[in-house]
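Intended use. Records like the one below are meant for learning the mapping from a protein sequence to its folded structure. Do not use them to infer anything beyond what is encoded.
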Amino acid sequence: MKTWVREHIALLSTLITYLVLFLPFLGQVHLFDWDEINFAEAAREMVVSGDWINVQINFEPFWEKPPLFIWLQAICMNLFGVNEFAARFPNVVIGFITLLALYFPVLKQYGKRAAIFTLLLYLGSFTPHFYFKSGIIDPLFNLFMYVSVLYLVYASQKRTHKNFLRAGLFLGLAVLTKGPAALLLVGLTGLCFQLVYKVHFYRFSNIVVLVTGILIIPTLYFGIQVYKNGWWFLQEFLVYQVDLFKNPVASHGQPFYYHFVVLLIACFPLFILSFGSMLSKRPVRGDITFYRWMKVLFWVVLVVFSLVTTKIVHYSSMCYIPLAIVGGVKLAEYIVLSRLTKLSLAVVGSLWVIVLVAAGSFALPLTNGPLALLKKRVQDEFVQAQLATETVWTIVPIALAVLLAVSLVRFLGKPILSSLASLLVTNTLVIAILMISFVPKVEQVVQGNWIQQLEHYQGKEMAHFTRGFKSYAHHYYTHQQDLDSLRIAKEHVLKQLGSQSPYNMDEDDRKIFANAVREYVIDSTTIPLSLSAKLNKFDEVDKRYPNLTRVFEGNGYGVWERSSAAHIE
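Structure written out for the chain above:
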């Protein structure tokens, strides 16, 4: 045991540092709309309703995501209560497991130095670090896909049914986490690996075992769904997944090169240090198979999500793992930075330094400072209202900018392993401190006051709605209850629409249903309620609902309550 500890002291130090950086302050910031609050609300409704089979939002069927990650959040809410810590804690654990899943395979194939640099690259870059402090699904989804590919790597080295079965089981878990996109990504990775490197690594019987492994877990869940609710859920779930590929769902349409730019800037310095190796044909010391699989996995994810019409930042997050492995292996052997790599590091690093300095200057009393200039240049009234939110900014980002700049200059001046390690460790601390000191200020400006208003409704029997925008905050932060009066109102609207159940509706019908329920409850019942709207809808809401009283305005949001004088039969 002592020998093992001595051999892996660097790993243990990294893991301890990880826990020290990630666990404290995990729940200090409200969850962000949409994704974080979306999944947390589904978990909260599991806890409240006791229904762990059907994913629900507003106590209505929600088909967009499978339940595995939501189950983890619900378990944590049972342990820690319904709060931000419980919603984000699963990803801290998932991050810990991911580091182990990165370290030991790289250690086995390429040695300790490559394994440590793989971890440092991953933790020392902005978005990979950030995601393990979030409450979104992707870290678990990516972990399962990576482990599935890892067993395919082992299968291509040693063709056994056991490896194919394990690859299938983890791929099935990925499907139960986020959906069939896992099948596409891992399947294309295997196909492209075979075509690019002209390697045939399976027999027909291996494919049968792989497919069997894939089907075992999802079939259990979706089989129960079909048995209880018919084919409706599975049909709408698959239709939604296809729409993500075909159409810019939720206005998330972006140009083809979107994910390349996201990785270049947000995944600093991992992407810049590793991307050259993704293009290079220069061999590595150690097993080439694992290295090649990771390169193929990176390109498959990047190309697929560049082609997909719906583009969101975390869609390309699966790229982080192969980037860290390929970059860690290459950089551990030697550091030869091309002029383009040095220039990219200097430009993007300088951009981050400027952003940090600008963020810190928000706290300085400058008449024409960055915040004042931003307020003048922004034309959107909603954003202007958010920027007008009073908060006490901090100059800490300026100190972080200095740390990052010094470390970056030191590495560019002398690109050796020690200066690289120093840059990555410094960047890890910069990100961690930034999230503790500055992100809460940003959240306060973006949504904090509005969320606090919603929290005032906890424990009150009220219905909560929005008009003109989509949100999950008015359900989660009010602790929306499954009110009998609201259920009766929904049943009335269903009859008016000629439908027997929400299970008979597609996505468009459900939008019509949700709007109809809101109008019916406001106009034709006396159910206590709140209604949230953004600044551009204030006049419309005031005119449309004279029986409601505006009780709050902040962060560009307004909240109305039913007037005590309102009584409509």
